[in-house]
Amino acid sequence: MPINVTQSYLPPLEDYVKYLTGIWERVYLTNAGPLVVELEQRLKDELGVKHLFFVNNGTIALQIAIKALDLKGEVLTTPFSYVATTSSLVWEGCTPVFVDIDPATLCINPALLEAAITPRTVGIMATHVYGNPCDLEAIEAIAKRHNLKVIYDAAHAFGVTYKNSSVLNYGDISTLSFHATKLFHTGEGGAIVTNDDELAHRIAYMRNFGHNGPEAFWGVGVNGKSSELHAAMGLCVLPKVPELIAKRRILSERYDALLDGTKCVRPTIQPHTAYNFSYHPIVLPSEEVLLRVRDNLNAHEITPRRYFYPSLNTLNYVAPQEAPVSEDISRRVLCLPLYYDLQISQVEQVAQLINEVL
Ligand SMILES: *Cc1c(COP(=O)(O)O)cnc(C)c1O
């Protein structure tokens, strides 16, 4: 049986069919349907956030966040993330300015932020990498001091809390991805979270073409809406999330017990964090070792993923900038298979194949 880096959790088919039956009865598929409204309410309650907008993916969530904050100019961002973090800035006409990462947490290094600020800097876009919270308090202090807006790409951070409160409560806006590969998913999907009423109003109309009723417009918008079919998937998966996290934790801890932590170095999780085990990255001693490990796993139909690679400061559509820590880590980091239906025996097999070539 091939083992991929991830496999989507699918709820029992009959659960999904129950929601489909309702959709068929109502003959109502999209535009703030009852399932979308229900999912948004349940997510707000579970996550403990004030405003949450369910959208059709995590990338449009980032793009609407940038537009809602009216960011124009330089945005300080991390080179160690999925490409959407950088591409959405470029797509929206902002200039990404890369600030290197902390080698222990793999999140943006707040000690380097202030040196990168210029008169053109308007904001910070940072990722809670692998669900590990950024240094929230340091970033907040710097943003206040320099009057910068903060967007957190929280695509990996579903359910993560810092000091007993959702990480989504930090910054001006946080965005989530509910892509099929994420811990909580709706097939495709995402969300925009804010505690600011005025921003919430802008996000609400921007998500829906700018509409203010059927014949008037608040301003320019885009189509960020999601459908009843996607909301139904979310409503089936959401109650299962605590169990998904608990299982991932067991598997992740098994990897840790079987692998040498000095050769398979793990990111340092921020203190005061309830982590979600959304990924199992290991940082190997060199790229050569990484390729050896990957090839040995591939030879046994096991596909880990070089995630994140390459470092985003090396993309061909951004101005060349240095980020030596990110470049080094991205050459040596590998995400191991981790998903709800993975068996302990499979974790043991993966670990053994890694140990053979370390
Ligand atoms: C998955 C992901 C995104 C994009 O989300 P989509 O829903 O796939 O558009 C953005 N940022 C990060 C860090 C991600 O992992």
TrEMBL record:
Sample GO molecular function, one term: transaminase activity
Name under which the protein is recorded: DegT/DnrJ/EryC1/StrS family aminotransferase
Entry keywords, A to Z: Aminotransferase, Pyridoxal phosphate, Transferase
Transferase found in the keyword field: yes
Protein's UniProt keywords contain Disulfide bond: no
A Pfam entry, by short name: DegT_DnrJ_EryC1
Superkingdom of origin: Bacteria
Organism of this sequence: Hymenobacter negativus
Family, as annotated: Belongs to the DegT/DnrJ/EryC1 family.
Lineage: Bacteria, Pseudomonadati, Bacteroidota, Cytophagia, Cytophagales
